[in-house]
């Protein structure tokens, strides 16, 4: 049985790197990422599981980091927005105006990355179901919908399933 | 975030989990006797969303130790009943048989609702799971947490009530100090222990639910109405199944607790084989058997009653 109490050194894998930080079992993953590891991409919107701005991937599964204790993440693989490098979903959000103020964007993008991986084909129902977890006060969501379509097209093109737009006759 | 300090324990078996809870409880009772705030009871943790949101909101919600049950095999199993539970004894005197025969499917209490939503094993449970919160939150919310939680809605319990599910849980053994068993594995009829909420004993670890296959494969009907969109608390959620004797159903959202009754099942069953005024009368009795719906800022009692009447019409058509 694992037992953790008081301040202790937590080791975990974030964005492909082994990291260690002093934490205590009552601390959420969101606080650990932002305040101890300096990863301020996940945003603290509501800290109540409502807005999705703090979404990160835990073993590839989108998770609201304000709703998880850091101690639960020992031995898990975490990905925050800082772990993406010019990902097609990031490029699509930029190209399609999928954000304005940008506060919701790291959470939106992390959820979208997992969504297009789980549903590589266009899927309106899945898009509504998954992306409904993230609130945006600026865009009206249209740019985000376009970004999902563009990201899927880019990923499909990369996989050789269809020609890129500029290569089409 | 949880204010104050907690001890985190992650057992790897039901026996370790129940023992960890008992030890933590004894330690917190001793510490509580010396503290003005009293004892902070240990809690079992699976998804943890209710624990985190409640602790953040209220200093009165004291958390002493968290016993994370996500590595307990029986709490994560899905499909066949785990071998370790085959010999579980009936709790108390309420022995009885499985309602539809011995064939059935098991759903561990620590399974995330998103996994149940995607799974094909029990479509009515998938529908009910999909109604709870939002998709990302459902990646964390657990079946057991939803069923045994404090919120009025607890929609995941509705298909289990309609299906006449059995619950499985682990209790501290009678006399472990004297060398007796450390653990008692028990099973019980969910309907017999669920009166507005699931009555669990102190330290009892909910392991999962067994649903008769006849219920998982039965014709089902599901109606959910909210005030705004899909991500909202329900004004009503109705889950119903066709059974050998007619129909069984449970209703959430309309009251501050999930509700069902034998009388309500009987009236809906009557409606399935009636027509005209007799059918309308039976549907009216089915709704009345559960009592008058509540009024709150989302909807008045009359509006909810009208939604229930419409939903029962739909359900009767789909099950007939
Ligand atoms: S900050 Fe986590 S959901 Fe809003
Ligand atoms: S871009 Fe401002 S909240 Fe979404």
Can you walk through the features of this model?
- The complex is a heterodimer of chains A (169) and B (320).
- Chain A has 169 residues and is α+β, with helices and mostly antiparallel strands.
- Chain A has two domains: 8-83, Ubiquitin-like (UB roll); 88-158, [2Fe-2S]-binding domain (DNA polymerase, domain 1, Orthogonal Bundle), CATH 1.10.150.120.
- Chain A contains five helices and six strands; from the N terminus they run βββαβββαααα.
- Chain A has helices spanning 29-36, 88-95, 105-118, 124-131, 142-158; strands at 2-4, 8-14, 17-23, 55-58, 61-64, 77-79.
- In chain A, strands 3-2-6-4-5 form a five-stranded mixed β-sheet, with helices on both faces.
- In chain A, strand 2 (8-14) and strand 3 (17-23) form a beta hairpin.
- In chain A, helix 2 packs across helix 5.
- The termini of chain A are far apart.
- The model of chain A has no long low-confidence stretch (mean pLDDT 94).
- Chain B is an alpha+beta fold.
- Chain B folds into three domains: 7-68, no CATH class; 73-215, Uridine Diphospho-n-acetylenolpyruvylglucosamine Reductase, domain 3 (2-Layer Sandwich), CATH 3.30.465; 219-319, CO dehydrogenase flavoprotein, C-terminal domain (Enolase-like, domain 1, 2-Layer Sandwich), CATH 3.30.390.
- In chain B, strands 4-6-11-7-8-5 form a six-stranded mixed β-sheet. A three-stranded parallel β-sheet of chain B has the order 1-3-2, with helices on one face.
- In chain B, helix 11 (262-272) runs antiparallel to helix 12 and helix 12 (276-288) packs across helix 13.
- The longest helix of chain B has 20 residues, at 14-33.
- Chain B is globular.
- Chain B starts with 6 loop residues before the first strand and ends with a helix.
- The mean pLDDT of chain B is 92.
- Classes of the chains: A alpha+beta (169), B alpha+beta (320).
- At the A-B interface, strand 1, strand 5 and helix 4 of A face strand 1, helix 2 and helix 6 of B.
- Strand 1 of chain A pairs antiparallel with strand 1 of chain B.
- The complex binds FE2/S2 (inorganic) cluster (2 copies).
- One FE2/S2 (inorganic) cluster binds next to loops of chain A.
């Amino acid at each position: 049985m694992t037992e953790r109490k008081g301040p202790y050194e937590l080791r975990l894998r974030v964005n492909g790197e082994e990291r260690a930080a002093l934490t205590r079992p009552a601390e959420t993953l969101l606080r650990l990422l932002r305040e101890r590891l300096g990863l301020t991409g996940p945003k603290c919107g509501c800290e109540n599981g409502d807005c999705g701005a703090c979404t990160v991937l835990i073993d590839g599964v989108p998770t609201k980091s304000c709703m998880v204790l850091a101690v639960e993440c020992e031995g898990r693989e975490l990905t925050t927005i800082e772990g993406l490098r010019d990902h097609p979903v990031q490029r699509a959000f930029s190209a399609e105006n999928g954000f304005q103020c940008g506060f919701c964007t790291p959470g939106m993008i992390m959820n979208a990355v997992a969504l297009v991986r789980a549903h590589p084909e266009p899927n309106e129902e899945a898009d509504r179901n998954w992306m409904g977890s993230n609130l945006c006060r600026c865009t009206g969501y249209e740019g985000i919908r376009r970004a999902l379509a563009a990201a899927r097209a880019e990923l499909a093109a990369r996989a050789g399933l269809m020609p890129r737009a500029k290569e089409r006759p | 975030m949880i204010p104050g300090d907690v001890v985190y324990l992650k057992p790897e078996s039901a026996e370790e989990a129940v023992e960890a809870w008992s030890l933590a409880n004894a330690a917190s009772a001793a510490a509580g006797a010396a503290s003005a705030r009293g004892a902070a009871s240990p809690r079992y943790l699976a998804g943890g969303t209710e624990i985190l949101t409640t602790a953040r909101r209220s200093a009165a919600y004291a958390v002493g130790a968290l016993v994370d049950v996500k590595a307990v095999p029986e709490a994560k199993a899905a499909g066949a009943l785990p071998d370790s539970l085959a010999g579980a004894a009936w709790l108390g005197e309420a022995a009885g048989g499985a309602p539809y025969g011995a064939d059935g499917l098991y759903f561990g209490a620590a399974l995330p609702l998103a996994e149940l939503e995607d799974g094909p094993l029990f479509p009515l449970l998938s529908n009910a799971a999909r109604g709870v919160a939002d998709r990302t939150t459902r990646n964390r919310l657990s079946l057991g947490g939803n069923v045994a939680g404090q919120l009025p809605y607890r929609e995941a319990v509705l298909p289990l009530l309609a299906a006449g599910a059995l619950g499985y849980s682990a209790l501290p053994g009678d006399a472990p100090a004297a060398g007796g068993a450390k653990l008692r594995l028990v099973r019980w009829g969910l309907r017999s222990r669920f009166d507005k909420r699931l009555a669990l004993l102190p330290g009892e670890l909910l392991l999962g639910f067994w649903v008769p296959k006849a219920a998982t494969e039965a014709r089902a009907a599901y109606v959910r109405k909210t005030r705004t969109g899909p991500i909202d608390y329900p004004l009503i959620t109705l889950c119903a199944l066709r059974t050998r004797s007619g129909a069984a159903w449970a209703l959430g959202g309309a009251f501050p607790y999930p509700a069902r009754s034998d009388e309500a099942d009987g009236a809906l069953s009557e409606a399935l084989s009636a027509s005209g005024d007799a059918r309308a009368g039976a549907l009216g009795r089915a709704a009345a058997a559960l009592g008058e719906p509540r009024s709150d800022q989302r909807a008045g009692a009359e509006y909810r009653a009208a939604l229930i009447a419409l939903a029962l019409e739909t359900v009767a058509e789909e099950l007939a």
